[in-house]
Design a protein that fits this description.
Largest sheet of chain A: 7 strands, mixed
Strand content of chain A: over 45%
Number of strands of chain A: 11
Distance between the termini of chain A: 36 Å
Number of helices of chain A: 0
Radius of gyration of chain A: 13 Å
Shape of chain B: globular
Structural class of chain B: mainly beta
Structural class of chain A: mainly beta
Helix content of chain B: under 10%
Radius of gyration of chain B: 13 Å
Order of helices and strands of chain A: EEEEEEEEEEE
Number of helices of chain B: 0
Oligomer: heterodimer
Helix content of chain A: under 10%
């Protein structure tokens, strides 16, 4: 399975600022995904980030708030812009697995916005 | 939305089999069933997946009913480290819709 790392692992930020989260995978993958997990909730897909194309956002998520970069086949970033306390969540990236739409998840970035 | 129904919580004695049910009555013919677990807010861990045949790997077994409307994840000999939230998902694409899952507590 792929080894995925995320930076930072956690952060505390002030409202109105932005944070960029990095996701690095140890092998080349076409598809990467970004999820949000709000406190006590399940995971929600934010967007799909394929190398060489614009990210595809799910309903309720917009590029201005969550810009995504995918410069190569092993790396992606998610920025949480103009943060508010409601953005306090765990943000996770995942990548395609080897078999039928399986996914491998990173460890997550725990964000607290004050 | 591809919603599944799972009991919110279950307890299991250490060393016993844990049987976690999932209802996916609106599953389509080309959609697979996937099981993941999440331990202490870490990233979800893939467990197993299947289409219509029962599947087994080193972690678990997956039993899918003949009409494919429900499935059961079986952890044959649960340990304390299996305490986690278990998610059942069905999809034919990479678009995962996570439900609330089952919080499994393995008791010593």
């Amino acid at each position: 399975s792929a080894v995925i790392s995320q930076k930072p692992s956690r952060d505390i930020c002030q409202r109105g600022t932005s944070l960029t989260i990095q996701c690095q995978v140890d092998s080349q993958v076409t598809m990467m995904f970004w999820y949000r997990q709000q406190p006590g909730q399940s995971l929600t897909l934010i967007a799909t980030a394929n190398q060489g194309s614009e990210a595809t956002y799910e309903s309720g998520f917009v590029i201005d708030k969550f810009p995504i970069s995918r410069p190569n086949l092993t790396f992606s970033t998610l920025t949480v812009s103009n943060m508010s306390p409601e953005d306090s969540s765990i943000y996770l990236c995942s990548v395609e697995g080897l078999a039928q739409e399986t996914q491998y998840f990173g460890p997550g970035t725990r964000l607290l916005v004050l | 939305d591809a919603k599944t129904t799972q009991p919110p919580s279950m307890d299991c004695a250490e060393g016993r089999a844990a049987n976690l049910p999932c209802n996916h009555s609106t599953i389509s013919g080309n959609e697979y069933v996937y099981w993941y677990r999440q331990i202490h807010s870490q990233g979800p861990q893939y467990i197993i997946h299947g289409l219509k045949n029962n599947e087994t790997n080193e972690m678990a077994s997956l039993i899918i009913t003949e009409d494919r409307k429900s499935s059961t994840l079986i952890l044959p000999h649960a340990t304390l480290r299996d305490t986690a939230v278990y998610y059942c998902i069905y999809t034919g694409t990479y678009k995962y819709i996570f439900g609330t899952g089952t919080r499994l507590k393995v008791l010593a």
